[in-house]
Amino acid sequence: MNVTETLSQGLKREFQVVLNAADLKTRLDDGLQGLQGKARINGFRPGKVPVGHLRRLYGRSVMADVVQNAVNEANQKIVADHGLKLAFEPQIKFPENKDEIEAAMEAKGDLAFTVALEVLPKIELADLSDVALTKPVAEVPDADVDAALERMASSNRSFSNKGEKAKAEKGDRLMISFVGTLEGKPFDGGTGEGIALDVGAGQFIPGFEEQLEGAKAGETRTVKVTFPENYTAQHLAGKPAEFEVTVTEVQAPEPVKIDDELAKAFGLESLDALKTAIREQIGRDFATQSRRKLKKSLLDALDGKYTFELPPTLVEQEFGSVWSQVEADMKDAKKSFEDEGTTEEAARADYRKIAERRVRLGLVLAEIGEQAKVQISDDEVTQALVERARQFPGQEKQVWEFYRKNPQALAEIRAPIFEEKVVDHLLGQVKVEDQTVSREALFADEDADAAAEAKPKKAAAKKAKKADKAEDSSGDDASV
């Protein structure tokens, strides 16, 4: 096998691989001889089928395996000999001349093909000794605890019958039955009986609840609404409908009671215990936001430390992902770029910068993690997989099996764990000072932070998997 580099431009490489006819024939003969002891053909004793006969029957199939093995061998040789780290799987291009291919398949001519590669850049890790970060921290205000108590009490409040002549008002609960129609015809999911509707809560289609204000028990009203364009049932989205709604009972809310009984309704022994639990939960939310802000500052600092060429395909894939989300959000909001005070061209340029930042930081985090020998345990992956499965109630088993059987999907579970562990490693190397801020300041610019936050994509995930392999060899991480 003769391998010659034909292109070295930036992060792109191309190699010409030539497998001469004699080598092809040797490999083909070896394959046929290996088949000879296995083949079971009528008229021949086991292991006695002539090689020439096997060649007529299976020569093309064996040669296909020979070619595939040669491609794999060439790829491994190229990577090993040149010390390359691939951004993507190699792209193989065979000759377009059919006669040339046919001759090679018969081992009567050389097989020549091109291997095109896109490699990861070499990253020299920067000195972070001058990086100083501020970590915003906020105390949980008593007002937040009180507001949470009010919400919990409201959701747990009782309702009592207002009487037959009482009119429904905002805040009341109606017990209703309804039949919905599209163009005069009933539709699936459009019928309900004994349904509770809290007037003004916004639980139903926009406009539905408002048309029931003032209704009395026993009254039937025709409610006319239009399903939202982004309604989950596609066959109903954007369509006008009518509902014949019968109110069977009008109920008024009982006064909200915040006491020990409320706490017991939520499984706690006293109001003080409930307040403590609420404060701790809000505190965890604050800590999560504080971590997010600190991480954003760290990534900003890293972004200023590194400049290197990015794999074009990685950037294009990341930009495609970002841009498709932008277009979906614009469509859902029924807005144009002009509405946002920009143009599509300018927006594309801005979001391409975001994509480039994500790829660059993903590669940097991956390189830091690899050099620091960051490892992911099997227990960590399992816990993350359990959390993911919990997001799909009733489908936990299917979700679990999907990830366990799909290595690429499982890599998406492992990558965030890898990233967070690398961030922890970096935070131990830089100066971090706590700064007390208000709740409002802690959560300010949350959307902007989320938009700029880097995610280690495919290249980083690959390096995360490499780190895992080191664990596998030491027996610390079971294969999944």
TrEMBL record:
SUPFAM superfamilies: FKBP-like (SSF54534), Triger factor/SurA peptide-binding domain-like (SSF109998), Trigger factor ribosome-binding domain (SSF102735). Residues 171-256 form the PPIase FKBP-type domain. Residues 457-466 have a biased composition (Basic residues). Residues 445-480 are annotated as: Disordered. It is found in: Cytoplasm. GO terms for molecular function: peptidyl-prolyl cis-trans isomerase activity. InterPro entries: PPIase_dom_sf, PPIase_FKBP_dom, Trig_fac, Trigger_fac_C, Trigger_fac_C_sf, Trigger_fac_ribosome-bd_bac, Trigger_fac_ribosome-bd_sf, Trigger_fact/SurA_dom_sf. Its EC number is 5.2.1.8. The keyword Ligase does not apply. Keywords: Cell cycle, Cell division, Chaperone, Cytoplasm, Isomerase, Rotamase. It comes from the Bacteria. It catalyses: [protein]-peptidylproline (omega=180) = [protein]-peptidylproline (omega=0). Consists of 3 domains; the N-terminus binds the ribosome, the middle domain has PPIase activity, while the C-terminus has intrinsic chaperone activity on its own. Involved in protein export. Acts as a chaperone by maintaining the newly synthesized protein in an open conformation. Functions as a peptidyl-prolyl cis-trans isomerase. Belongs to the FKBP-type PPIase family. Tig subfamily. HAMAP family: Trigger_factor_Tig (MF_00303). This is Trigger factor. It comes from Bosea massiliensis. The lineage of its organism: Bacteria, Pseudomonadati, Pseudomonadota, Alphaproteobacteria, Hyphomicrobiales.
